[in-house]
Amino acid sequence: MRILMALVTGVFLAGTAMAGDNGIIRKESAQGVDETMDALQSALEGAGLTIFARVDHGAGAEGVGEDIGASQLLIFGNPKLGTQAMLDDRSAGLFLPMKVAVFEDETGKTMIAYEDPAAMLGQLGGVAEDAAYIQTMTGALGTFTDGAAQ
Question: Where is the DUF302 domain (predicted)?
């Protein structure tokens, strides 16, 4: 069943990015970190999702005398979906709300990274690998991050 979910996820994300062995999906953005994150946040808010926090990791690193470049994390969610996952397995709350990181990599490219919902929630015993909310989360993350990357 895990193989089937991986195939469904792969087909859904074809042309954008693929999850690595660790379940992290990475894609390059044509814009800078601030512009990419602004576009992502705007799209999520426009779709009615809740923005819980926007963390500036780059500024945090500077505060301790280090330089990791521009790096931000957006924490957001949709209680209608997240609650379904937590009804199946209360431990899903460890992974929710969702998170997307946007950062400048070592070569200066702006990258978007997030955990594949099937990989993230699939490790929980009570969450069915073919749960409709996992497919919805996967599709939404792909669509929102693709839009922000342009």
Answer: 55-117
